Amino acid sequence: MGIFNLFNGKKKLEEIDQFSSQDEVLFQSKYKNPRVPVLLKGAAKHWPLHSKWSKDYIKDNMGSYICKIIEDSRPAYAKDQTTLKFYFEKLKNVSTLTLEPFNQKNPPLFYKDIKMPNPFFTTKDIQRFFFFHSIKDAGTLPHIHGNAFNILQEGQKQWVFYDASKTHNINGYNTLQASNKKYPQGTHAKDWFKKEVPKLHNKVDKVFCCTQEAGDIVFIPNGYCHAVLNKTEVMGIVFETR
Q: 160: which strand partners?
């Protein structure tokens, strides 16, 4: 369990469910509608991206896409940009993502490698997407957004979640706001995991976790705070949905 086995047997993080069914109705009723995070175990293992994607494949086929150059764990604030081709050919020890609205009439080239239809989201659901590549020990500090499906093509990531919706959990919302002030631009997820995760159970009612591996999809509900620490180099894509 590693970093998650932090409470000396008194109180541990709670593992989110692993869901391996292809039952759309069950997924909607058990997880999406009631806002419950879930690990869709192996859900993308048979999608084209799982077997096709590599650094060279992305560089050769999607190399013209503009991406951010990320040196900390607040990717939304990164200002320096380049192309994926330049990123993979020239840059080392940094991470990247492309953050764009999703155009249903002209979907991104990445989308051709997503299995559609699938039981979890439709083309009409998608509002924006981002392709990501990140180095070992990097990650993302706590943040929230709308419903999202994080599809991991390569590597392993550790996740921590708690409800931070201002409507559903004001205590979680306030905890997130305090965290944002303490860990602004220029700070790193690895420090938050080391210093803050052991204390989270004193601040919010429930703290969830999971380990995501290649081929897994993590569903993050609207308003759920989440933070990520890369245990290896990682690559994948995220779709934010209605």
A: 209, 227
Pick from 91, 110, 99: which is nearest to 52 by CA?
110
136 burial via Cβ count (<10 Å: 0-12, 13-18, 19+)? middle
Query: In 3D, which of 223, 145, 235, 157 has the Cα closest to residue 193?
Result: 157
Q: Which amino acid is at 231?
A: K
Q: What is the pLDDT of residues 73-120, one digit of tens each?
A: 999 999 999 999 999 999 999 999 998 999 999 999 999 999 999 999
Q: Which residues pair with 158 in a beta bridge?
A: 211, 229
Name the E strands within the chain: 14-15, 17-18, 38-40, 66-68, 81-83, 96-97, 100-101, 126-134, 139-143, 148-154, 156-163, 208-213, 217-220, 224-230, 234-241
- 151-195 residue pLDDT tens: 999 999 999 999 999 999 999 999 999 999 999 999 999 999 999
The Cα–Cα gap between 64 and 68 comes to 13
By CB atoms closer than 10 A (0-12, 13-18, 19+), residue 124 is: exposed
Which long-range CB contacts under 8 A does 91-95 form with residues at least 24 apart?
93/135, 94/69, 94/70, 94/135, 95/70, 95/71, 95/132, 95/133, 95/134, 95/135, 95/138
Question: Omega into 117 within 30° of 0, i.e. cis?
Answer: yes
CB atoms under 10 Å from CB of 142, counted, come to: 22
Task: Return d(Cα 29, Cα 104) in angstroms, integer.
Answer: 26
Model confidence pTM above 0.85: yes
Tokens representing 232 are: 């290896």
